[in-house]
Amino acid sequence: MKRIACLLALACASTLAQAESPETYHYGMHLDVAKVISQTLPQGCQVGEARMVYLDSKGERHTLIYQRIGEDCRY
Q: Which positions carry the signal peptide feature in this UniProt record (predicted)?
């Protein structure tokens, strides 16, 4: 029973260690995006904060924050 509890605690700790802090995009920043996991886009015609979670070519998970116009804006 102690072994199961120890393994469970270790699994939880490794998950917390992998929690990444978001990066804010700046012009000219090199991005290594191999796979997009999720994307949150602003609404309307105002520029707002978008968020993209992706995996790089090494399989590491990243969160990127950037500015863009809303996805449902029609001119």
A: 1-19
Q: In sequence order, which residues have a C-beta less than 8 Å from that of residue 69 and are 6 or more positions away?
A: 42, 45, 46, 47, 48
Which segment of 17-21, 29-33, 41-45, 60-64 scores lowest on mean pLDDT?
17-21
Confidence (pTM) = 0.68
Q: Which amino acid is at 35?
A: K
* E strand or H helix that includes residue 61: strand 61-69
Please tell me the distance from the alpha carbon of residue 75 to that of residue 45, in angstroms, as a whole number.
9
Q: Return the amino acid letter for 54.
A: Y
Q: What does DSSP assign to residue 71?
A: T
Give how far Cα 55 sits from Cα of 7, 41, 49, Å: 26, 18, 20
Secondary-structure class of domain 20-75 per CATH: mainly beta
